[in-house]
Amino acid sequence: MSSKTRGRDMSRLLADFGHDLPAVPAPPEAVKEGRLFRHAPRRGARTRGRGWAPASAPVSTWRMTSDQAPVYWPFISSPGLPPTGAQMGIDVLSGGSFFADPLGWVLNDEISVTNPNIFSFGKPGRGKSATTKAFCLRMMDFGYRVLVIGDPKDEYEALCRFFGVEPFAIGQGLSTRINPLSFGPLLSDWESLPADQAQARAAIVFARWLTLVRGLVGSQRIGDRHVPFGPTEETVVQAALGYLTGYSKGSSRLRETTIPELWAALNDPTEELIRDCRYSGERQFLDDTRLLRDALAQLVKGALAGLFDDHTTIDVDWSAPIQSLSLSRLEPLGDEAVGVALTCLNSWGRGMREMSAPGDVRIVVRDESWKQLRLGPEAVKSFDADLRLSRSSGDIQFAVAHKPSDMLSAGDTGSQAVAIAKDLLHLADIKILHGQDLGVAEELEKMLGLGPLSRDVVTRWAMQGKGRALWCVGDQNYKVQTVLHPVEQDLTYTNEAIKGAA
């Protein structure tokens, strides 16, 4: 049908009467949005200035658990310790500085540290000595003083002379004498003390002496067994010391005694001593104390004769920033002689610190401590007592050894000495673990409770550079790279002998 026969449509009809329908709006033109992400080749865009590389970048693979990676970016841990104390180096995980403040950590309830003692383990050449000396040197700026109780390799002599302090050398033919039975500061003003205070001081002194004699006697051997030191021997020694010092007679002024005088008193006992020790006669006394007297005789006449058998001949300046007792002259006598010397020095040093003034904080360095532990259970108990007293004295006991299993060399497997030595690790809430061989990985996990990641830090990362260590502060671990100043590098260098022979 044509348009003429169809007629007009609605829009034409309305237009004839002056009404126009609104036009249909045209659809809007589609606008293409910009792309947020553009594909780029793995090696970059091959255009000038676009960073194209001929080889693709390596991909790092990280293995961790959900508690170790709560977020995926930026993989940076915040410093978990306050910036107080000695600035030791770089906290690798956070990129910030790492500060060590053992006493401050004890006082901070937010840090799980209950004692300031430190154990430092590491393979020789991994930076143990340098880290120890750097810690001591930097803590001096905060009022700490350093006491090196026995320096078997004379590693601290340069540090002493840097501060104008001449270290004391102990050895055969030298004039230095140390009396481990010294009263120390507790003897001062004894005459004016009330009876109860005098008794309290006497209890401290005699307990220290008994611990020493027990350790010295127990270091002697009968075949593969240590000389026993039981309640009978303790009663005899305490009674003899009471007579030699005048305490048993109620003297207002006590007299200092020595190990040779103790041995002589037991070798030629008085009737009063025999009666007080509840023996029927001199013959029974001498028979029952033969092992005790022979063990003391070895200390008086043996390899260490002339070292710890007389009154102290040195006057220690306790206000100096550092004091050290060098023992390298005893190395030819063997590890056992060095261990006995360390036991004597520990007792003497403990006595010197029994009345330290408030605020007189000191870092007590115990290098090659494993040599003392090998003397037997009594020597281990003496070392144990020193660690337990650190909280009351305010001292930081800093023990250095090669590896945790050195503690197990205190005796046979399952023995009392080994059990006590294992517990020593729990008396130090701070452990510095330098690089170790893979063979030590198992004992790191069993003895220290390290997980696989922390164990790999010690056996892998820490072995790739000197001064790297895993700092275990309570239940938190930190990867730390110790950074030394050029002056400190000279003071902490310990390879002079190797360098001279090369």
Provide a descriptive summary of the structure in words.
- The chain has 502 residues and is of the alpha/beta class.
- The protein has two domains: 86-178 and 312-501, Rossmann fold (3-Layer(aba) Sandwich); 187-286, no CATH class.
- 36% of the residues lie in helices and 12% in strands.
- The protein has 20 helices and 13 strands.
- The strands form two sheets. Strands 2-1-13-12-11-3-10-9-4-8-5 form an eleven-stranded mixed beta sheet. A two-stranded antiparallel ribbon has the order 6-7.
- A hairpin with a 2-residue loop joins β12 (468-473) and β13.
- The protein is elongated.
- The mean pLDDT is 82.
What's the structural blueprint in terms of helices and strands?
Blueprint: H1 3-6, H2 10-16, E1 86-91, E2 97-100, H3 102-107, E3 118-121, H4 128-139, E4 145-151, H5 157-162, E5 168-169, H6 195-218, E6 221-222, E7 225-226, H7 231-245, H8 259-267, H9 271-276, H10 282-288, H11 290-301, E8 322-326, H12 335-352, E9 362-366, H13 370-373, H14 377-388, H15 390-393, E10 396-401, H16 416-424, E11 430-434, H17 441-448, H18 452-459, E12 468-473, E13 476-482, H19 486-491, H20 496-501
Parallel strand pairs: 3-10, 3-11, 4-8, 4-9, 5-8, 9-10
Antiparallel strand pairs: 1-2, 1-13, 6-7, 11-12, 12-13
Helix pairs in contact: 6-7, 6-11, 6-12, 6-14, 7-8, 8-11, 12-14, 14-16
